[in-house]
Amino acid sequence: MRRVVGAVVALLALTALSGCSGLSGTDDVNYRTDGAGIVQVDPDDRAGPVDIAGTTLDGDELDLADLRGGVVVLNVWGSWCTPCRDEAPVLKLASEELDAEFVGLSFRETSSDNARSFEREYGIEYPTITDEEQVLELGRFVPRTPPSTYVLDAEGRVAAVITGAVTSSGTLEDVVTEVADGG
Amino acid sequence: MADVASRPEGHVDGPPPDDGGGRRPGELGVRELGRWTWRQVTSMRTALVLLLLLALAAIPGSVIPQENVDSLEVSRWKADHPSLTPVYERLGLFSVYDSPWFSAIYILLMVSLVGCIVPRTFVYARALRAQPPATPRNLARLPDHTSYTTDLEPDAVLARAREVLGKRRYRLRVAEPDGPGADSVSAEKGFVREAGNLLFHVSVIVVLVGFAIGGLFGYQGGVIVLVNGQPFTNTAASYDDLDPGSLFGADDFDPFSFRVDDFDLEWLTEGSGAGTARKFEAQIAYRENPGDEEKSYDLRVNHPLSIGDTDVFLIGHGYAPVITVRDGNGDIAYSGPTVFLPTDPSFQSLGVVKAPSARPQQIGLEGILYPTYFFVDGNPTTQFPALGRPLISMLAWTGDLGLDSGVPQSVYVLDTETATPLEDADGKQVRVDLFEGETEQLPGGLGSVTFEGVQPWVRVQISQTPGKEIALLGVVLALIGLLGSLYVRPRRVWVRARRVDGDHGSGTMVEVALLDRSGGADLTTVLDDLVADLTSAPTAPAKETS
Predict the structure, then answer these.
(1) What ipTM does the predicted assembly reach?
(2) Residue B205: which H helix or E strand, with range?
């Protein structure tokens, strides 16, 4: 009987400890503020290849499956999202210097015009897929908040997730190199 | 004692006689204090007080806007009450149901209930197995009693009594042919009352656990979805406001998506309800899983869509003016439907446009949409909430919109701290007033603003509440238990039959007594009925009557 009481108390005590799951609520603000974090997935634990395909801002069809064989960096972003603006220069630089294909996936964008004007501002030249529903293809790695950046390995599997803005190209470079080397 | 006193001070053989360490009467040891506290906590009075407290504590949750219900409303409230806000925040009043003090009441109530139910269940189990009590010696002392004489033998009377009481579903004390109770029948019924009582207590726990499960493993979120806009995909990132349970993870969202294809709304144009919406209905197309076939659904108020474990409720609607901002280079710096939030039932709505990519300078607009604009008595107003004569009236800002400070910003607020008002030739801040289809040039060659049209939006609340069936079950059980404990009367009946040899001949004197343990009931009719049954029917064995 004591044990039952203890278990119930423990269960209820958990209700009091909100915010221990890693998934935080919007709390006091109308937007989400999850801090940046990198999660790397061991090659043995990686889920199946990500099947994202759709129309890009330029009107072309793009299928990530066609990019397999090399490392792909997938950035989920929106022109309305302030941290996305922070990371845009970093991503532009990285896309020019790293040995990886960069692809964007626009998220909660009300108009492609806004996405285009964002790309114009930062001089981003890699393609961005505009079919937002495609994020669900990321399965258990669905974005917690934009921006979220995914590093896909040569087989198209999620090898690393960076949640929040990528603020230093060094971090991304390290991850990309590691994934390219099979890590 | 004399022996102890005669010893040298400080000399003690074995444990001291007073293990309380010389404490005074009235003081409690740790054990006693614990036991006392436990008794207080598990007392019925404490449980009732806690239940009342829980009800009281829930009041701010319905009076003060709650983060998890409508965070927009909360922001608005905070803006209106700058001095109260820090106090309320401190007390967790914007999120009552996860505040520490609410949890404290909740947990204490659980402990109290469990501590009360478990011992009572044992007592009840013992009572169930126990026999009805022995017949008191003097039945005449009981408040409800009667007696009569009959010619039948005492054994026949008692046999009849057993039969009658048995038929009325009394539990009978096992006959003791040779014992002191041989001349009587003792019967008891109404055990269901205590069972109902216990059931009620247990069901309160079931309800609490149901809500706790919902709170731990579920979530609630709200989002504004544009009609004919991008689809909504169910991920943590897609919500405008989200309140996940502590054990709800980012990968626990059902992977559905939906699109709002159409939105029908009927405005009442006359009568006392003029200006209110009679019905609104959103036609949505959804996929339960990526790649599934698309299904359609008419989402209405109180007619939610259930996808897997998730419910989608339509809770509101509004307007998103389609605004295009061209910058000084002639490029489109901003375009598309912009969600404006209604500020009152007239659907006069507030919104902002941020065009940080505009060159040479960023452009920001902040202002109001009047769905049916008229200029009345020197004041701009909307005459009707429907889109009769939509007008946007927005103040223009330029310079640094604060979007590159690295701090996340609400899409509904323009940060004007570092921005500068865009001024016209007279030094007045530019106000862009546009009817549908109109374009206005901004001064200084900064560009232009066009009001293209209005697209409606709907606000949906999406929630996953895994424990809700449990909570409902708890409420049903509580009702059953309450009925049992209110309407079932625990009652004891004794019948004693004795041979008497009096002046006017011999016979059997039968005494019947009743005890209602819940008290207050009028037992005379019950007693009369019982006696009537005892005396009326043939009690002799069949072979004698034939």
Answers:
(1) 0.81
(2) helix B191-217
